[in-house]
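Progress against Task 2.4 (sequence-to-structure conversion) is shown through the following example record, which the project officer requested during the mid-term review.
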Amino acid sequence: MLIDLHSHTTASDGQLTPTELVNRAANRQVNILAITDHDTVDGLQEAQDAIDEKGLKLTLIKGIEVTTNWLNHEIHVVGVNIDPDNVQLAALIELQKEKREARAIEMGNRLAKANIEGVYEGAKALAGKGAITRAHFARYMVEQGIAPTFQKVFDKYLSRGNTGYVPHNWVDIDQAIEAIHQAGGQAILAHPNHYDLSNKWMRRLFTEFKEAGGDAMEVAMGQQSPQVRLQLAMWSEEYDLLASQGSDFHFVGRWRDLGKALHLPAMAKPLWLDWPIYNNLLEAENT
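Structure tokens generated for the chain above:
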């Protein structure tokens, strides 16, 4: 069974609409897909409607990816099986929206002072009704020829210590986990190996995430060496965190796609083993 619990749409910084995303997932024979846009649930209803209208053989898991602050590091927490209408989660989303907009405006101001004008407006146009992110800034700046690639934009303009960088002021990990739990969901530490932390700091993050009530961590991702995947599986076992997997899909690319190369090492305990929807699908497969 193919399970992908981390993906993005145009509701945040993905490049496919929710309808396009679920169509692609179904075409790639993904069985269970979580849509986890950054600090928003706006794409979930469109995605479910598209699945229902077209009769796609795809089960949608309602999710979100909350951007958090942990000891001045930006850490992402994925929530799955959430109630998108939960009051506490809605309050957190509104707070994050205000923080995200304020940061984007200040980024635009700093770039303008460096004679790189109109970037906030360009990024905002790309974001449309979705949550504006640094990826929108990077995409606009590449389109305008300010830098040749996304990575060059971040390296020269949007990373810490550079012209357009603005320190983040996101909610704490504890707040994110609490809101996800209040919404009936499970909290997953997203892509732990992407934070450029030493093993000592990684272990501290796992410890504090677990103490805050975290349920799982991402172990399997699309672009990942077998050694990294095995190490993450070992850590998930050591820190008593269930194992999750996800492509972190944003757009169609050569190396990353929905459901691509997603499988857990044998030692890992999958997050979804107790999900009724998983067991129902498994039973149907075996009959």
